[in-house]
UniProtKB/TrEMBL annotation:
GO terms for molecular function: ATP binding; cysteine-tRNA ligase activity; zinc ion binding. It comes from Moryella indoligenes. This is Cysteine--tRNA ligase. Residues 357-420 form the Cysteinyl-tRNA synthetase class Ia DALR domain. GO terms for biological process: cysteinyl-tRNA aminoacylation.
Length: 469
């Protein structure tokens, strides 16, 4: 198996630190709102990586955190007049709903930054004691970047180049930096912000120290794979390396994996452009299995363009898969209990070669696009060779192989029971009330809105019936 390592910029042979075991840390979201589809790409991809390792028999320890203390969370809490924990707890719960919809397996551990403050204070103190960090007069603790010889080895930047990317406007306390490249490990509290006691001041941790501490606690000082979006290479992952290796004296991660960006209709997603899409919004129009299949349809290191046309294509692809699995189940019910024919034995050989093709694609830097292609070839083989007269053993072998490969991709092999979410139910109820009050304009508006969400209503004598478009 080969993995493209961001640090070496080469495909490297995967050799785990401990035979038969894989340790993975993937940076999770900051929970101040619903997750967007940019968050979804690394979630789906690294879940698929984990699934493949488990398919190959590895014992995987998969850790993905929630950043539950942050400027954006605090701002959202202040706007609502609630404690920051109310915001973070709400959106952790909503994030887990979306992850379940995308069939993302719960991590072995989902640590919360606020529950690991003690470990962060301990690591910061070790960095200070080792000369890698210093305390400013106001209690801010900075990491001394020039104290770490390997700084820049992941992003392939030197310290001088990094400086050119820093903000020209300084924030409070930055005038106390020894060097513009130094970054915050601990910051003093501001009025109305959550804070923790520390030897330096009442305050809270910087972003980068959180992941170093959580990775060390749940996976150890060295890990096999560290993953995330390519926007995290610098400064977040670069800073993680500096912190972790300065304390341990050991290489932090053997392999660094980063997925490319996601665009919306060939334009970078942003709230200011009005093309910002959340996973929850997508779920109102599409089964999130479709979003998952779409995300895996391109190589993870290639930029991916989200559009209605691409999602409709993924929808058709999922339907093709599910129809193929329906065909196998239907034929198996009437299959003959007999020995396999020569043609069926030949079909099994084709099946095995296609399974090998799938595995070869996955082991070449997790090429999910080619892996999906192998699945469609298996579906084609099944559709063209399986009938009600086929031997039961032949049908079962195809069914088991396809199910196993679909599970690696996180695609459920059976159709979901259609269920309306709370928003759709509320809209239908509102429409009924509008019709009752003879507010037909509003009723028509709701019908149009539901149509956009992929729900078609039928007014019958028995009441309102609905179906997915």
């Amino acid at each position: 198996m080969k993995i493209f390592d961001t640090m070496s910029r080469y495909k490297e042979e995967f050799v785990p630190l401990h035979p038969g075991k894989v340790s993975m840390y993937v940076c999770g979201p900051t929970v101040y709102n619903f997750i967007h589809i940019g968050n979804a790409r690394p979630m789906i991809f690294f879940d698929t990586v984990r699934r493949y390792f488990e398919y190959k028999g590895y014992d995987v320890n998969y850790v993905s955190n929630f950043t539950d203390v942050d400027d954006k969370i605090i701002r959202a809490a202040q706007e609502e007049g609630v404690d920051a924990s109310v915001i973070s707890e709400r959106y952790i719960a909503e994030c887990k709903k979306d992850m379940a919809g995308m069939n993302i397996m719960p991590a072995t551990t989902h640590p919360l930054a606020t529950q690991e403050i003690g470990g962060m204070i301990e690591m910061i103190q070790r960095l200070i004691d080792g000369g890698h960090a210093y305390v400013a007069p106001d209690g801010t603790v900075y990491y001394r970047v020039r104290s770490f010889e390997g700084y820049g080895k992941l992003s392939h930047k030197n310290v001088e180049e990094n400086q050119s990317g820093l903000r020209t406007l300084k924030v409070t306390g930055e005038e106390a930096k020894e060097d513009p490249n130094d970054f915050v490990l601990w910051k003093p509290k501001k009025e109305g912000e959550p804070f923790w006691e520390s030897p330096w001041c009442e305050g809270r941790p910087g972003w980068h120290i959180e992941c170093s501490v959580m990775s060390k606690k749940y996976l150890g000082e060295q890990i096999d794979i560290h993953g995330g979006g390519e926007d995290l290479v610098f400064p977040h992952h670069e800073n993680e390396i500096a912190q972790s290796e300065a304390v341990s004296g050991k290489p932090f991660a053997k392999y660094w994996m980063h997925n490319a960006f996601l665009n919306i209709d060939n334009v970078k997603m942003s709230k200011s452009l009005g093309n910002f899409k959340t996973v929850r919004q997508i779920s109102e129009q599409y089964d999130l299995q479709i979003l998952r299949l779409f995300m895996l349809s391109a190589h993870y290191r290639s930029p991916l363009n989200f559009s209605r046309e691409m999602m409709e294509g993924a929808k058709a692809s999922l339907e093709r898969i599910l129809t193929g699995m329906d065909h196998l189940r239907d034929c198996l019910k009437k299959a003959e209990d007999r020995a396999l024919s020569d043609a069926e034995h030949a079909g099994l050989q084709q099946m095995k070669s296609l399974v090998t093709k799938f595995e070869t694609a996955m082991e070449d830097d997790f090429n999910t696009a080619d892996a999906i292609s192998a699945v469609f070839e298996l579906i084609k083989l099944s559709n063209s060779t399986v009938t009600e007269e086929s031997a039961g053993g032949y049908i079962e072998a195809l069914q088991q192989s396809l199910t196993a490969l679909l599970q690696v991709l996180g695609i459920e092999p059976e159709r979901k029971e259609l269920s309306l979410d709370s928003r759709v139910e509320a809209l239908i109820a509102e429409r009924q009330e509008a019709r009752k009050n003879k507010n037909y304009a509003r009723a028509d508006e709701i019908r149009a809105e539901l149509t956009k969400m992929g729900i078609i209503l039928e007014d019958t004598k028995e009441g309102v019936k609905w179906k997915k478009a």
